[in-house]
């Protein structure tokens, strides 16, 4: 049994990780196909007290190396939860600060951002549909990139229906290196056309 933090006991320090318990915990949510699917995921989110669209769920999926959004396989669960040393709800909740801290680490964030592309796309598609891309960008860059709301507006009115991996990777690079007033944007740089067009669109708006 897992002592909750409320009891004032140290979690993890007193109780060693148990693979057996971790597996039993998995089966609380998994269906007969040995996969945690949408229904199980909803219950899991409820139990750990996190909304499914909370960025913590994306970081957790990254830690579990989950392949598909909304699903955890038994292998992913056991491997990922073992690396986190979590075999019950309370232990995972005690890791939330650690999971959030991964977003503040530049290289971890870049890995999570890149992971999100493959995680969120339909597996038979090479690109992300634009609505999914917008939702994921909002989750990942919405709070930290000053130009995000402008870029979102641009995508809303643009002709783009999908975003490919190169565009996705470059949006992060752009958000990290180009000033909010676009003054240091290099038109001759190797940016994808999507970003060239965004800059043109924004400059026209600023001028009017």
UniProtKB/TrEMBL annotation:
A GO CC annotation given for this chain: ubiquitin ligase complex
Chief site of localization: cytoplasm
One of the Pfam families matching this protein, by short name: Cullin_binding
Single biological process term from Gene Ontology: protein neddylation
One Gene Ontology MF term: ubiquitin conjugating enzyme binding
Keywords: Cytoplasm, Cytoskeleton, Nucleus, Phosphoprotein
Top-level taxon in the UniProt lineage: Eukaryota
Record-annotated DCUN1 domain positions: 17-203
Subcellular location: Cytoplasm, Cytoskeleton, Spindle; Nucleus
Quaternary structure and interacting proteins, as annotated: Part of a complex that contains DCUN1D5, CUL1 and RBX1; this interaction is bridged by CUL1. Interacts (via the DCUN1 domain) with the unneddylated cullins: interacts with CUL1, CUL2, CUL3, CUL4A, CUL4B and CUL5; these interactions promote the cullin neddylation and the identity of the cullin dictates the affinity of the interaction. Interacts (via DCUN1 domain) with UBE2M (N-terminally acetylated form) and probably with UBE2F (N-terminally acetylated form).
Protein function: Contributes to the neddylation of all cullins by transferring NEDD8 from N-terminally acetylated NEDD8-conjugating E2s enzyme to different cullin C-terminal domain-RBX complexes which is necessary for the activation of cullin-RING E3 ubiquitin ligases (CRLs). May play a role in DNA damage response and may participate in cell proliferation and anchorage-independent cell growth.
Name the record gives this protein: DCN1-like protein
Underlying gene: Dcun1d5
